Amino acid sequence: MRCSVLDLGSNSFHVLVADLDGTTLVPVEREREMLHLGRVVAQHGHVPEDQIQRAERTVAHLSDLARRSGSQEHVAVATSALRDAEDGRAVLDRLAAAAGTEVRVLSGEDEARLGYLGVRAGVSLRQEPVLVLDLGGGSLELTIGSGAAVHWSTSLPVGVSRLSALVDADPARDREVRAVRDRVVEELGDHRDTIAAAGIATTVAVGGTVRALARMIAVRDDVWLPATLNQLEVTTAQLVTARDQLVTADLEARAAIPGVKQRRADHIHIAATVLVEVLEQLGLDRITVSDWGLREGILLDAHGVRRPPSADGLRRREIARLRERFPTDADHLDLVTTLALRLFDDLRAIHRCDDRDRELLAHAAQLHDIGETLALRRHPVHGAYLVANAELHGFSPIETAVLTTLVRSYRSRGIDRSYPPFAALPREDQERTRRLLPLLQIAERLDRARDGAVRDLRVTVEGDTVTLEGVGQGGPPAPLDLERMSQLFTTTYERELRLAGAVRAR
């Protein structure tokens, strides 16, 4: 069903409209308005009348958008700023009237739990326990969990809008930056010991300003990004460099930094200061960025989805979603996957790739011809575009770049080294992509006619010769097919590729 959530946050009011099918959530519409109520409440203790009227107009607009987008169920929640405002109850009554639905005020504990659920639904995490840092406008939620279980959480009043009340100058004075850092240290208090004792394996950070910082760093470091920066890894050292640049710049200079959006420029330096201080105080050297969090968690929880998928399950679900959205010949995709994995398994001794590479090869085989749904001519290029822009959750930008390159290149004589997703890969990832491509290419060509003539393979490695013997109902491959199949393989592996006649399946 199509549903929506209106998040009345301390930085922004945000509506998310999504289709929920079982455990799968697919966003179809988003819109936000920056109100910075966290700063307003920090300065005045309440929400002035002109700000209430602005909030009412925003809520009415976002709620109307959700309903016109087909939402059958509209829920609204409020977080830190309206939770803490002296006139919060009266303001919420007016906003509920504007929304046409009751506004639920989330406690800090609820906010942490629901944010954790949203993160786990959109990020594939293999190492646990996990610490989730949700940096909002009014508060910072910290949650420790494993799988679906939340072991510990707390909410600290060190949100970006709230702490911006400590900074009047632009650029910020040194003493103002110190005041922000001191407030973070004070609020962390004994929580540092609790978190240290948990043995955190992975730290995930979520929030609009977190993503803004990550995008700034990615642009600065020339990192290729697909349509989403979900699962981008950012080091504390990179964040320190970004913070030092931001806190010495005024608003105009911050907005001019490549990768920084105008609407985030006013508070992004505060976000960098808070996030770096938290990571340094906790002794954490990196974060994984999530673009799902509280809003996604609210919708999932409201429909009884409280157990996130496994890391592998999430990735398989996302590949299936893309296949369903752009359907081609399912039998062909499955057979090419079978053949590609047979080649991978039987050639481990020469390709020296690992199980992570095997999984990516399987996913690439499942998606290799989805571009045919747009046009047959140049369909690998169309397919690569779809993979790069489908917002595949569960995959890091590096993994998405590998998939995109394989899909784009499987009909070619080799990888174009200037292709941006490939060119931006670290050298070791370029090499593994280069070694996976011939396996996908051979598997696809064996079922080029889509007649299922070759159902499986027998692979033999003897010295510098690799022999493939098809198992199925087909005859020996045509000489031209042999030549085209062997060129890239021979160039990559420096071995002769020989194809024997097919062995008929019994």
Description:
A six-stranded mixed β-sheet has the order 8-7-6-9-11-10, sandwiched between helices. Strands 3-2-1-4-5 form a five-stranded mixed β-sheet, with helices on both faces. The model has no long low-confidence stretch (mean pLDDT 92). It has helices at 37-44, 49-68, 80-84, 88-99, 108-122, 160-163, 174-188, 191-197, 208-220, 236-247, 251-255, 268-282, 294-302, 311-325, 330-346, 348-351, 355-367, 379-389, 397-409, 420-423, 427-446, 479-493; strands at residues 2-8, 12-21, 24-34, 73-78, 103-105, 130-135, 140-146, 149-156, 202-206, 233-235, 286-290, 454-462, 465-472, 496-504. A hairpin with a 4-residue loop joins strand 6 and strand 7 (140-146). By secondary structure, the protein is an alpha/beta fold. Helices cover 50% and strands 19% of the residues.
